């Protein structure tokens, strides 16, 4: 039996255009946050998975024409989208995932009702959706840890040291910051136990 | 590497002093402490005469890039100009083809070719088309080596993540490994080569330990011993110098404690000499 293999792209949406960011009115004191936190903002409420799918389809059609649209049409699906974390997991067929990836790279702003300048960054390509989810969780934990660390040092400088060092070690059994070994790319290789989620 | 971009047109009647136009403490908050910021200048080559001011320009910036506008200036940049990066404007329709020979000549001498993606990403359909066509040609003509990928972003919105840029290059014909090299290894080699051009001399990169000066009186003794070029006692020059060293070292050792410990060879020789002396003394005693 011939299995249809997929690739799951884990996509972050970044908003580096701080003037017209989605979260308006901007809460006070947000400009003191480091840029890494400011870029990862929650998206507007009008953005959803269907809009993202339309955007990807239009992008592929514009860049790769009818050939590209035809190739990805059968298996393109947005499996997960969260406005709060501005993260999405997109499923594509394994042979043509680079087309969808390129379309995401060439996208410059969110589509019509939302219309904000943004940057799409693919952080993980994996053969199963489980790996993609795990990676999303790992990254979220890492950014929380870093944010705590940064505000802790900022508070120390301000003069009131928060004794919360113990809380930062809650994930010490998992090595979150292990980002080595990406010389082969951010792709996860196909493992023998990989099984696709059924539609 | 955070890369700040400055394009300058060098005119014949430019000011006598060229200074780095990028401010020294950058006006951004929260840059990490360990981040090393390099400054780069991109020069648009409009004339194709050799320009001696290039050396002065390269002295003030860490990396010097050159942007040729037609085939003649490209040939000049590849062969004889002293630059670190050759960065072409790939969003224009170029009237010439890339050939492997001049490109490989440039790569062998340490220059790298740059593919900038931001103009095509943000711009309109025509620029995108030219970028894709020219980048594909460049990748094919250079056989995937000697390229670096960067954005030429005017704003943060035009930047893309490193793997996104590598994927774009992969779509345009550069393999995944070559793309990763282009993003990491080749960029580092450009920076290091530029630094070596500016700070090394005849293959010497850096002097780590230059040795110590010998103490002055030792130097005098050995100087006297070595000054004698004729063989002494039938020995050759080097042996005479070594003998002079031996003789001088015990003499000095009493005076100051800076003598080096005697090597095995020297101790053996001294022991032999002492034995011979003792024997000859005995014989003299016996004789006399």
Question: Can you put this structure into words, describing what you see?
Answer:
The complex is a heterodimer of chains A (199) and B (288). By secondary structure, chain A is of the alpha+beta class. Chain A is 35% helix and 15% strand. Chain A is globular. In chain B, helix 6 (162-171) packs across helix 7 (176-183). Chain B is built from 11 helices and 7 strands. Chain B has helices at residues 53-60, 71-79, 100-108, 118-122, 125-141, 162-171, 176-183, 185-199, 216-227, 237-255, 264-287; strands spanning 3-4, 7-8, 38-45, 63-68, 85-87, 112-116, 147-150. At the A-B interface, helix 3 and strand 4 of A face helix 6 of B. Chain B: Keywords: Hydrolase.
Features:
heterodimer; A: 199 residues; alpha+beta; four-stranded antiparallel β-sheet; 4 helices; globular; B: 288 residues; alpha/beta; seven-stranded parallel β-sheet; 11 helices; elongated; hydrolase (chain B)
Write the layout of secondary structure elements.
The complex is a heterodimer of chains A (199) and B (288).
Chain A: E1 6-14, H1 35-39, H2 49-73, E2 77-82, E3 87-93, H3 97-106, E4 119-126, H4 129-158
Antiparallel strand pairs in A: 1-3, 1-4, 2-3
Helix pairs in contact in A: 2-3
Chain B: E1 3-4, E2 7-8, E3 38-45, H1 53-60, E4 63-68, H2 71-79, E5 85-87, H3 100-108, E6 112-116, H4 118-122, H5 125-141, E7 147-150, H6 162-171, H7 176-183, H8 185-199, H9 216-227, H10 237-255, H11 264-287
Parallel strand pairs in B: 1-3, 2-3, 3-4, 4-5, 5-6, 6-7
Provide a brief overview of the structure.
The complex is a heterodimer of chains A (199) and B (288). With 199 residues, chain A is an alpha+beta fold. Chain A is built from 4 helices and 4 strands, in the order βααββαβα.
Share of β-strand residues of chain B: 5-15%
Termini gap of chain B? 87 Å
How many individual helices of chain B? 11
Q: What fraction strand of chain A?
A: 15-25%
- What is the count of DSSP helices of chain A, taking H or I runs of 4+ residues? 4
Strand segment count of chain A: 4
Morphology of chain B: elongated
Radius of gyration of chain A using CA atoms only: 19 Å
Along the chain, the helix and strand elements of chain A come as EHHEEHEH
**Major interchain interface with per-chain residue totals:** A-B, 23 and 20 residues
**Major β-sheet of chain B, in short?**
7 strands, parallel
Spans of at least 5 consecutive residues with low confidence of chain B: 1-14, 225-232, 250-258
